[in-house]
Design goal:
Helix content: 25-40%
Number of strands: 15
Pathway: Protein modification; protein sumoylation
Strand content: 15-25%
Protein name: Ubiquitin-like 1-activating enzyme E1A
Oligomer: single chain
Keywords: Ligase, Nucleus, Ubl conjugation pathway
Number of helices: 11
GO molecular function: ubiquitin activating enzyme activity
Radius of gyration: 26 Å
InterPro entries: E1_4HB, E1_FCCH, E1_FCCH_sf, ThiF/MoeB/HesA, ThiF_NAD_FAD-bd, Ub-E1_IAD_1, Ubiquitin-activating_enz, UBQ/SUMO-activ_enz_E1-like
Length: 354
Amino acid sequence: MSQEGCELFSHTTTSQDINMKDSSPAAAAEQLKDANGEIDESLYSRQLYVLGHEAMKRMGSSNILVVGMRGLGVEIAKNIALAGVKSLTLYDPKPATISDLSSQFFLHPEDVGKPRAAVTAPRVSELNPYTPVDVHPSNSITSNLDELKRYQVVVLTDTPLKDQITIADFCHENGIFVVITDTFGLFGTIFTDFGKNFTCGDPTGENPGTGIVAEIDSDGLVSALDETRHGLEDGDFVTFSEVQGMEGLNDSAPRKITVKGPYTLSIGDVSGLGQYKRGGLYTQVKMPKFIDFEPLSTQLRKPELMMSDFAKFDRPAQLHVGFQALQAFAEKHNGEFSKPHNDADASEVWKLAE
């Protein structure tokens, strides 16, 4: 991913690129957009194919804060810088340690003892001169939460649970998107809160379903040709084309469906649209989905867990408890997590989990 990301910003060299070399990152970022605020397609051509123009425009207007500059945090910061956001701010006043060098690829041995964010920011900014990279000025984010209002997205890594709750609740109340993620050995966790009435343009990411119509009866029941599974779900929307007899369906507004079986679906009232004769194609239309996210403090008590392996149905709930137990252990021991292969620490974590 790192190699491809670097290629993303090196495959095209223009006179504009040369003129930007001596300008500030903020000024260079503004030059990437034309008079209409459009993203420079020659620079972000590969990314535009994947994300689309709308997502790129939203990223180009986003100020993002990443907290925690250990292995996970710096990987996130690297990807955000390459993506081309309006600005990226890093926060981690903790001194770098020898162990950080194993995963934090922007740290050098001579950086040990220096604040992680301060030594990381200049090296992250080198990845993409068009994304300004700064260091959050405060020594404690929770001491002045109003400073977070300048950001559209806050990403928390390597953050104590009590601070996660404080920051996440503040962001939820002020319309700031929150992503909280951590890794513990072979296990990881991620929480997202994108506020109230968040618009998801494509809930599944799959290609729209299409099929051939075999029959449409007077009650609006549509049958697929040759008993081909339509693969649609209740609440999906479809449009029709090339229908003969019931021409009123062709190129009309998307119609919400009700699945009646693997080969049939209902499109509701079709009176006044004519009598179906033959032919026709149906095409799924991806409609925006509106989602209300709950704050972290609510989800900790009653989580909605994502299931990735149905063979281990109880695993997510166990990990949810285990991660909180680890955080509770760290809070009791000045931020230090339990040591590996230590029976006393393991016993204490187990009691906290219970």
